From TrEMBL:
<keyword id="KW-0479">Metal-binding</keyword>
<dbReference type="GO" id="GO:0007169">
    <property type="term" value="P:cell surface receptor protein tyrosine kinase signaling pathway"/>
</dbReference>
<keyword id="KW-0808">Transferase</keyword>
<feature type="binding site">
    <location>
        <position position="228"/>
    </location>
    <ligand>
        <name>Mg(2+)</name>
    </ligand>
</feature>
<dbReference type="GO" id="GO:0043235">
    <property type="term" value="C:receptor complex"/>
</dbReference>
<dbReference type="GO" id="GO:0046872">
    <property type="term" value="F:metal ion binding"/>
</dbReference>
<feature type="active site" description="Proton acceptor">
    <location>
        <position position="210"/>
    </location>
</feature>
<dbReference type="InterPro" id="IPR000719">
    <property type="entry name" value="Prot_kinase_dom"/>
</dbReference>
<feature type="domain" description="Protein kinase">
    <location>
        <begin position="46"/>
        <end position="345"/>
    </location>
</feature>
<dbReference type="InterPro" id="IPR050122">
    <property type="entry name" value="RTK"/>
</dbReference>
<dbReference type="InterPro" id="IPR008266">
    <property type="entry name" value="Tyr_kinase_AS"/>
</dbReference>
<feature type="binding site">
    <location>
        <position position="78"/>
    </location>
    <ligand>
        <name>ATP</name>
    </ligand>
</feature>
<keyword id="KW-0067">ATP-binding</keyword>
<feature type="binding site">
    <location>
        <position position="214"/>
    </location>
    <ligand>
        <name>ATP</name>
    </ligand>
</feature>
<keyword id="KW-0547">Nucleotide-binding</keyword>
<keyword id="KW-0418">Kinase</keyword>
<feature type="binding site">
    <location>
        <position position="215"/>
    </location>
    <ligand>
        <name>Mg(2+)</name>
    </ligand>
</feature>
Length: 376
């Protein structure tokens, strides 16, 4: 495969998605395959003393990338363990391909670029940095600070500050520095953002297969982004049993509806501040308990409307579970009920939270107004 650098460089996430689909490019009379996601290895530096995480076949480090017009030059870089194997190499290349097909969405951890065409180097998988770490860790910090217990009832129901729209139409929140970091409003906001990302994945025909708080990362601005698409390949050698739907445990039937089940477990993680689901049940006993109707109990700080949604997600029959579009709408309604301050947006609540996921291209490269972010 011949890779060339064209005159007009796709230098940001949104236009890179557009150029990734450039048809029938030719160079000196020959057709060439041009991958706009490939990054010059000379523009990337990796800080191997700053490991952010580790997986089954790769480590994740903090890095810096130059010459791309990005809001933040600091990135995360996934690199294979040494010595690498052909299996691990194919796994990371497959994950990169999945990320390319997904493209950019504000509530998904997005691909910034990759390096796969340097024969002397292992593949590099470059993603945006989410500096707050995983949602699970953030929830654990909230629990150690007392969760919602330190908030008065009025604070629980009215911790939402006025909204304002910035110059590109993205929702921002003007907050009081003394407001609780993890208010009920914030928890519901995380839930909505994740459902928005999953709804976008559904529109792409992609099943995540590992929806859990540990796989949601949070940015400095408290934007939640679903990541870790490795299990989209549906490898059966490793299944997150306590997050997995009964039909997937019993018959390996993964679908959007099994992701909906897992999302219900994630909701429980959010409102329990990161408790392990079904902590007292052994993994080998999970299927029996689920088939006999055992479900997670409602947490003290979980609104009735949210727990009702969890139960809908945990219907034993997949077709009875809601779609992610319906999930997103229901959580949007809860966000509207939690605080009178919600009225600061001059749009209808239901319309705002049922806006279709935006597929960005060169004509709509600033339209991210469907995102709901609450800053601490």
């Amino acid at each position: 495969m011949l890779l060339i650098s064209l005159g007009k460089k796709p230098d940001d996430l949104k236009t890179r998605n557009y150029y990734a689909n450039a048809p029938d490019l030719r160079y000196s009379g020959r057709r060439v395959d041009w991958d706009s996601w490939e990054v010059d290895i000379q523009t990337l530096s990796v800080n191997k003393t700053n490991k952010l995480g580790a997986g089954a076949f790769a480590d994740v480090f903090r890095g810096e990338i130059r010459e791309l017009d990005l809001p933040e030059s600091t990135v995360t870089v996934k690199m294979l363990h040494k010595p690498e194997t052909e299996q691990s190499r194919q796994a990371i290349l497959k994950e990169i391909d999945i990320m390319k097909s997904i493209g950019y969405h504000i509530h998904l951890v997005s691909l910034i670029g990759c390096i796969t065409n340097v024969q002397s180097s292992s593949p590099f998988f470059i993603m945006e940095l989410c500096s707050k770490g995983s949602l699970l860790d953030l929830l654990h910090v909230g629990k150690s600070d007392g969760g919602m217990e330190n908030n008065t009832q009025s604070e629980r129901n009215s911790t939402m500050a006025p909204m304002e729209l910035d110059t590109i139409g993205e929702t921002k929140i003007v907050t009081d520095d003394n407001a609780p970091i993890l208010s009920l409003k914030m928890l519901a906001s995380f839930a909505w953002q994740i459902s928005n990302g999953l709804n976008f994945l559904t529109s792409k025909g992609i099943i995540h297969c590992d929806v859990a708080a540990r796989n949601v990362l949070v940015t400095r601005e408290m934007v939640a982004k679903l990541g870790d698409f490795g299990l989209c390949q549906r490898k059966m050698d490793k299944i997150p049993i306590k997050w997995t739907a009964p039909e997937a445990l019993e018959r390996a039937e993964f679908s959007v509806k099994s992701d909906v089940w897992s999302y219900g477990i994630l909701l429980h993680e959010i409102y329990s501040f990161g408790e392990v689901p079904y902590a007292l049940i052994q993994p080998e006993d999970m299927l029996y308990h689920l088939q006999h109707g055992q479900r997670l109990a409602q947490q003290q700080d979980c609104p009735d409307e949210i727990y009702d949604l969890m139960q809908q997600c945990w219907q034993i029959e997949p077709e009875l579970r809601p779609t992610f579009e319906e999930v997103r709408t229901k959580i949007g309604n809860v966000l509207g009920l939690l605080s009178d301050m919600y009225g600061y947006l001059s749009v209808n609540q239901a319309e705002y939270f049922t806006t279709s996921a935006v597929q960005l291209n060169d004509n709509r490269d600033t339209d991210e107004s469907s995102a709901m972010h609450i800053s601490p």
